[in-house]
Amino acid sequence: ETGVTQSPTHLIKTRGQQVTLRCSSQSGHNTVSWYQQALGQGPQFIFQYYREEENGRGNFPPRFSGLQFPNYSSELNVNALELDDSALYLCASSLFLLGEQFFGPGTRLTVL
Amino acid sequence: AQSVSQHNHHVILSEAASLELGCNYSYGGTVNLFWYVQYPGQHLQLLLKYFSGDPLVKGIKGFEAEFIKSKFSFNLRKPSVQWSDTAEYFCAVNGEDSNYQLIWGAGTKLIIKP
User: I want to staple B13 with a disulfide (CB 3.0 to 4.6 A). Which of A27, A72, B9, B17 is the partner?
Assistant: First the structure.
């Protein structure tokens, strides 16, 4: 059974640019959640997708957007990058909406 | 707004010492409570969870946590730690008011001296 995978592992961008992060959910999982983890802090919930529909959003501006595909993989897009967007971005999948979340290794984004 | 507070950001213990990591939450309704662990170089993984029933919950690797509703606490314990318990530990909460989205504490970095 393949776990949750994320790509890329690391990414460096400059202010104002756009970025797309990718997540492949664990086999059979239909729910994907995205989190931002700044240095020294716990994860902050960005949004969740359930069967290709957004199901809840945290306190993040609209320039953070996402997609879930029919195979339940997901993308996180961030437009107009700011320095404070530098963080580890975590993806987690679960078998059903309130199920245990299984985490990927994260993507480390650095904005210069 | 819901929040989760972990009292210690860093804890250093010797092997065989007993461990207790504090977690308090602010939330008025029914909650589900979680402890996650991140070992060096590994993914976050679930250590244990409480949904209902016996407030003393047992997890993997000899860890347990006690839900004390009157104190809004869910402290993590282990009677005798090992060097391999070196990791970062996160407490998280969800409930109806957060639409069951996880609210996380800032984490506690635990270092076990061999």
Answer: B17
pLDDT in tens, A91-111: 999 987 778 899 999 999 999
Question: What pLDDT does B114 receive?
Answer: 86
Segment (H or E) for B19 = strand B19-21
Phi-psi region of B72 (alpha: psi -120 to 50; beta: other; left: phi over 0): left
Contact A100 B100 (CB under 8 A): no
In degrees and rounded to multiples of 5, residue B8 shows phi and psi of -115, 130
B102 and A45: CB-CB below 8 Å?
A: yes
Amino acid at the residue A72: Y
Give pLDDT tens digits for B69-101.
999 999 999 999 999 999 999 999 988 777 788
Shortest distance, CA A47 to any CA of chain B (angstroms)? 9
DSSP assignment, residue A101? P
Q: For residue range A12-47, list pLDDT tens digits in order.
A: 999 999 999 999 999 989 999 999 999 989 999 999
**Interface membership of A20 toward B (CB under 8 Å):** no
- Nearest beta carbon to residue A56 from set B46, B90, B101: B101
Q: Quick one: tokens of A37?
A: 């983890």
